[in-house]
Sequence to fold (172 residues):
Amino acid sequence: MLLNDVFRRLRYALSLDNQATISIFRLVDYTLDEDYLLAMMRKEDESGFLPCRDKILCLFLDGLIIKNRGKQEGVEYQAPAAGIRLSNNEILRKIKIAMSYQQEDMLKMLDKADFKLGKSELTALFRKPDHKHYRECGDQILRNFLTGMARTYRNENKSASESPWNTKRPKN
Fold:
């Protein structure tokens, strides 16, 4: 799955506009140019498309963790290394941490996307790669999980301004 798709789907699910996204990057001391953000949001076949690098997605997910859970006391944030490669398992793990999801929450997200996964299959995704019961997270699992998040947070009965992730203040 393209990292641009993951980034785009997460922003959609959480109803994050450009300014909210840029502010998440600021939490990890990274200045993201709005033009670069817009280029990453384009589809592959559109002119001006730029691929989302692993480091950029990692910074975004780390910023989301800090936004939702706060900075760890006494720990200075370490930016990811330049050549970092994110697996689907790592992406899913960072989303789980950022959203404070428990196993049941994650299974509900998958269920919202009409995707069935057992508890043991889910826990296998979070094991260390050298564990005998480790399972690689495929694109289908990640895609369905993000779809479930979108269906949960972007409930048709709510407007985008009522979303807990929207940082815009209502005009009085």
User: Anything to note?
Assistant: The chain has one domain: 3-72+84-156. The chain has a mean pLDDT of 90.
